[in-house]
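Worked problem 6 (solution included).
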Amino acid sequence: MNLAEQAGKIVRLRGTAGNAHAGAVLLRDGEPPVYVTGLPDWGLATGLVVEVTGVVEVQQATGTADPAGRISHGLAGEVFQLRDADWHPVPVPPTR
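Solution. The predicted structure is:
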């Protein structure tokens, strides 16, 4: 799913709950992280597979650059966020 095309729409995404310096993120294979607005971290859900529903927002972030123009701190480029998000862990089927 191209999240940039979904800006302003409600989506449901599944991935792994991760924590970043800027807050809670949803990690999906081969896709950029998606920040969950208003959630500082996942707490005990960190590392679990979760499903998150929310409104997609796309922002352009500029990090702090050194004199050579290399980003040395902060986010840079397109940043995806889910606002007004609701989430729950995805049940893991029992192993036999």
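Discussion: Strands lie at 10-20, 23-27, 34-36, 49-61, 64-65, 71-73, 77-89.
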